[in-house]
Amino acid sequence: MTSRSARFRVASGVLSRGGMRALAACAVAVVSLHSLEAAACGCFAAPTVVDPVVQAGERIAFSVDGSKVTAYVQIQYTGSATSFAWLVPVPAVPEVKVGTDELFEVLDRNTRPQLSLLTTVAPGCGPSGPVFGCGAAASYAVNRGEGGGPAVGGNPLVLRDTAGPYDYAVLKADSKADLQQWLDDNRFFVPTTSDAALAPYVRPGAYFLALKLRPGQTAGDLRPIVLSYASTYPMIPLVLTSATAVPHMGVQVFVLSEHRSIPRNYHHVQLNPLKLDWATAANYGALVTAAVAEAPQKHAFVTEYAGSSEVVRGQLLVAAQYGAARFGVQSELGQQPTPAAFVGYLVSYAFAPPTADTGGAPLPAALLNLVEAQVPYPPHFAEHGVTREQFFADLTRYLSSESQSAHPDWYAEWPGAHYDGPALAASVFESYVQPIRDADAMLGAHPYLTRMFTTLSPEDMTEDPVFAFNASLPDVAAVKSATRVTGCNGVATTFSAEGYRVDDARLTQPRKDAMPAAAVVELLGEEGPAQTVSRYAPEADLMAMAGGQGCAVAEGAFFIGLAAVWLVVRRRKLA
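The structure corresponding to this sequence follows.
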């Protein structure tokens, strides 16, 4: 998946105030991290190399049910609809549906890494009240159809159909020449730079899914794609992704399953907490990139959360700001007498994402696209400063005969509204509501959720990461904790974070710069504890002296993998 410009979406985190702790006066700063958005799988393609599509920062969520894998892929793209195409290898003929971006909003919001910094004063050397100044509110940014049977002869087509705004085809991967010819003939464009990247996936028994927008659709109609297929393990085809990837591309993976998920054929790294900027988290993305680079072949993931899926269950169907269920009743929606009343019902019953201010914020584009099929946005309104969102937010005014009489030039070439409430309600519930309900059911069907993240450059995408499971590994909390104890009367200041306790006065910037970015590089097997490959131990002169510091131990201690005999099980490489 790609975006036309080589950019990452910049996301903002929040620095929140903490309360007083009973043991010592303190202020707690909690910084929420938006990681670089993950690039999922597959390959965007442009029809020419003059204006190439560049892949950057998307996300994928897997759910695993026995021998069935469902891949939920978020697609982001900027460019013309006719230039959009997407190609992804799959191990079996998939079931194809459209999804909702709200799934990723809920997953990210509830598992986002957070840094909690507790500042205290050593006993007997400070005021008894709170220590202000370390918990002030702040923000930061982290860079962060047709057919239906087996193919005959040289024709690789297995089936062709539509899903939401997409025209898609499932193709046999027996022959690259036949595959390329079919794609060219049917205007599923693949850039020549993808030839080498395609080769590892071309083999008997494998398939490709080709996707493009249907005629009349725009880039604004893009929706996540949901693929369900027979497979034992989730896998991301990064070798193919490398064709249009950018340097240090973020790859974010969510896995819903019975147990904690692990990178089966990649290393696992734990970040060095002594190098983190605990006040702002501004260096988080760069630290992940540096830590991954310290693993063999730069193939590694960081686990940002591993634990109960309870943190995300049910949230897609509840309007948090109202404490009530979303969407109302389809028949009631269809009975609304006017388009304005129809849109008002959508607002009142929280059809917008629960985090949106539905009292004033515009409804999502995917929803407005459905309404616009019956109530077109007049083509000349933009010339007069009325946006599409403003038009739909005030339909009573803009559909009135008074408005049309007062501004006839605004309505030139406008076909008018042709409102059919029951038909529009059916379309909204089928195309917009049902994917949200399906996503909610997926969240509720699996007890465990793992969130992993890495960054990779195209030259490092030499092996597809495969994800397995280990029931014996510990949970990983989203909140990481550190404690700084300010001393007095000659008592040294100490800093404790995720299992480390050092003399803060000696933790100078040059020393931080010289430290490795990874506290631990390890291998995770499908059973048993981690096998440590390398572990960072601070120099002796950095270690804090025992006793007399009045230091609270950091919560959520950093898990340093226990050494154990472990058999490395690698999957067989794709031919």
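The mean pLDDT is 78.
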